[in-house]
Structures are given as C-alpha cells and as structure tokens.
C-alpha cells in the first residue's frame, strides 16, 4: 500500500509541479462540472464579446452562431446556434474548460488547463487561455443559445 | 515487486510523454492531395501564374543575378552549375553524404557558399538567401515533388512526422489536426489547406514580402501559442522533409502567392 503511494507520488513529481490539473476529478460528475468556477455569476453579454474577440475566446475561429454579428465564422467545430438545447451549463463548463476530459483526442482546445501541454510559448507558460470568470461568462452566453430563445 | 516497478516505469514514461497520439493516425489519400493554390480566389491564383505581375519574381530576378555574379573570394554559382539547376529543388530536403546530414534548399545553398565560395553563410530571411532560393526553386516550376526518404534520410523523416503529429502550444493542436483531418474547412477567414510546402519561398499578402517555408511554420506554431523554433532548426528541416514526402505528386509553384 505504502509503496504504491510512494510510486504514485513519483509519477506526479516526474511530470513537474505545474502539472496538477486545474479541474480535479472531484469537480466532475458525469460529463459536467456542476459547480460554477467562480462566485460571481457568468455574464452572457460579456460572454458574447469573449466568444467573438480575437484576443480572448475567439471561438468563432472554429464555430458559428446564427445571428451573431461577426464576419467569417469558422466551421472546424460544430454549429453552436442551439447548443443550449443539447447541453446544460455544467456540461458546457466541462467542454470549454477541458474537452479532453469528455473525449480524449478531441480537437477542441482546453481553455482552462495548464497541465500536460507541450512546447507552450514562453509568454503563456502556466497560464490558462481564459480566466475562470471568462469561462463562466461564455457558459452563460452559450446556455442561452436555445431554439425557444429569440433574443439573437 | 519487479513487475510493479516495471509497470510503473512504463506509466512514468507514458504519463509524462508529450505525445498523446492514438496509434491509428489518418493520412492524406493520394487522390486527395492538392496544392493550397486551389483554395485561393481566382484573382490571387491568376496573379501567381502571371510572371510579370507576381511580385515574387522580383526576388527570382535578383536571385538569377546573384547566381551568375562571382563573390569576392570564390567562383559564381553558375561556374559549377552551367546548365542551371532545373529539377533539383523538387528533390529537397535531401541527405548530404559529405556532412552526413539532411539539408533543405537554403542549407544546401549556404553549404556551397561556405565550402565552394569561401563566403560566410547568408542569414535566414536575408534578401540574398530568399532571392537565390526562390530562383533555384523556380527552376523546378511545375516539377512534381519527389524526395528520397529511404536510406539515411529515413530517421529524419520520422522525426518530422512526429513533429507534425504532436499536439503543442497553449491551444494544444497538431499540424495533423488542421492540415490532414480538417483541410477544406473554414478557420475564420481562411480555408484550411493541406499544409504543403510547394509554393515556398512564397509571397504572402499578410507579410507584404517573400518568406521562407520556415517563416510559415513559425507562424503556424505561433498561432497555437507554441514557442516557434529558430529559422533553420534541424527539427523544421525534418518537418520539411516529411511535408515534401507527404506532398508527393503535386508540383513546385515557387514563387507562390498566399493570403
């Protein structure tokens, strides 16, 4: 028992200190992170701006949302116009934070993760793409993308 | 206990290795292989084909002048290559037996600069090196790419393939994911091409200049927020060899015009 614990610690330390996942298995239930990452509730309006902004989320690089005012939305990832019909906030949170936890090998980048990455640019080492609050803002925006909503 | 130790050391290696690739990696089907120029709009493509209007020919012309101009210390390129170098660029990168290394076209040219002409190597992206590389590559215009990856170049080719398939950067994406698995799709304003090197050195409208393939590779690495490699890095040369083998059949377009 003892030996196994030591070996487990060895495995962890061999990968470097900053390799501890930001999303621990305790935070996940099923395919969702049910608890918000921050105390401040996500703001859908800020979320929409982040979704478009080149310097921040820039999700339109790969996704499109009908009615969103932005030129040249990508189609490498699925259309998210009605993603709120498919997923609740907790499911969206996990998919944005680290899609690889849903499906290893997924193409979708992990926006709230710093571990097990390779050749990361000097300016970004140890940093997540989005802050926890920004993830919450985008979750709020996407959770509203439902067929019944006509606020586009 | 021995078994446990062995198992753990394997776990150690796999847990920390950078590559998280599955074994069954898709490849481009031979009949699908196309140059990035098929994704350009018709005006840009017409510009590429017009040898008078294509701005890349400014470099080609300067390269042609350099080719026949003797440097201070040694003979001109043309002294050794009287008949020019038609077809040669289509076989690069290639293994050089004298130095036991795979060289790309720029590396080959600099090798001649140093050993045959007793001149210092030109720096990457200098006007001279871009010009002469563009000139030599342009002599293979329309020639199908055909590199040798058997024999001593094999190991280098495999290193390049690994680089292509490894996810990297803060965005954790590989060349493979964009250029083999998603070509033809829209990434914002761009249509993802298959990522071939056949147009390089190419004139990129975004650069407002001619640039080398390594400059393009640095842009792609920077795009996923990975640390780009230095110009001429052996890993980029290996990647270039993999790209060339992967683009077998399509032909040289230098100087290409790209967005």
Please summarize what this structure is.
With 152 residues, chain A is an all-alpha fold. Chain A has helices at residues 2-14, 44-52, 83-86, 89-98, 132-143. A three-stranded mixed β-sheet of chain B has the order 6-5-7. A two-stranded antiparallel sheet of chain B has the order 1-2. Chain B has a two-stranded antiparallel sheet with strand order 3-4.
What's the helix and strand layout?
The complex is a heterodimer of chains A (152) and B (259).
Chain A: H1 2-14, H2 44-52, H3 83-86, H4 89-98, H5 132-143
Helix pairs in contact in A: 2-5, 4-5
Chain B: H1 2-16, H2 42-49, H3 56-68, H4 77-80, E1 94-96, E2 101-103, H5 105-115, H6 127-138, H7 154-165, H8 175-179, E3 186-187, E4 190-191, E5 202-204, E6 209-211, H9 213-223, H10 234-246, E7 256-258
Parallel strand pairs in B: 5-7
Antiparallel strand pairs in B: 1-2, 3-4, 5-6
Helix pairs in contact in B: 3-6, 5-6, 7-10
């Amino acid at each position: 028992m003892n030996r196994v614990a030591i070996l487990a610690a060895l495995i962890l330390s061999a990968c470097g200190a900053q390799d501890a996942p930001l999303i621990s298995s305790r935070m996940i239930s099923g395919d969702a992170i049910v608890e918000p990452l921050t105390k401040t509730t996500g703001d859908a309006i800020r979320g929409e701006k982040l979704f478009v902004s080149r310097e921040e989320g820039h999700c339109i690089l790969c996704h499109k949302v009908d009615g969103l005012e932005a030129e040249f939305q990508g189609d490498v990832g699925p259309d998210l116009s009605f993603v709120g019909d498919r997923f609740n906030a907790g499911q969206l949170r996990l998919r944005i934070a680290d899609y690889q936890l849903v499906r290893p090998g997924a193409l979708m980048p992990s926006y709230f993760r710093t571990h097990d990455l390779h050749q990361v640019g000097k300016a970004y080492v140890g940093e997540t793409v989005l802050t926890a609050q920004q993830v919450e803002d985008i979750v709020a925006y996407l959770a509203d993308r439902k067929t019944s909503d006509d606020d586009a | 206990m021995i078994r446990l130790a062995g198992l753990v050391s394997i776990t150690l290696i796999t847990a920390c290795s950078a590559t998280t690739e599955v074994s069954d990696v898709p490849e481009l089907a031979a009949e699908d292989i196309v140059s990035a120029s098929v994704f350009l709009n018709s005006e840009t493509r017409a510009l590429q084909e017009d040898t008078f209007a294509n701005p890349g020919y400014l470099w080609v012309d300067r390269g042609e002048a350099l080719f026949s101009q003797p440097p201070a210390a040694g003979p001109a390129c043309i002294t050794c290559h009287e008949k020019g170098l038609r077809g040669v660029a289509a076989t690069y990168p290639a293994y050089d037996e004298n130095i036991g290394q795979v060289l790309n076209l720029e590396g080959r040219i600099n090798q001649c600069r140093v050993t045959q002409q007793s001149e210092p190597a030109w720096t990457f992206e200098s006007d001279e090196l871009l010009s002469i590389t563009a000139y030599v590559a342009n002599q293979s215009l329309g020639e199908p790419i055909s590199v040798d990856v058997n024999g001593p170049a094999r190991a280098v080719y495999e290193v390049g393939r690994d680089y292509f398939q490894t996810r990297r950067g803060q965005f954790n994406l590989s060349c493979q994911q964009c250029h083999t698995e998603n070509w033809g799709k829209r990434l914002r304003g761009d249509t993802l091409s298959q990522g071939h090197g056949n147009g390089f050195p190419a004139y990129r409208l975004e650069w407002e200049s001619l640039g080398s393939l390594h400059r393009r590779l640095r842009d792609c690495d920077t795009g996923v927020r990975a640390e780009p490699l230095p110009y001429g890095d052996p890993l980029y040369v290996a990647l270039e060899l993999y790209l060339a083998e992967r683009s077998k059949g399509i032909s040289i377009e230098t100087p290409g015009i790209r967005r």
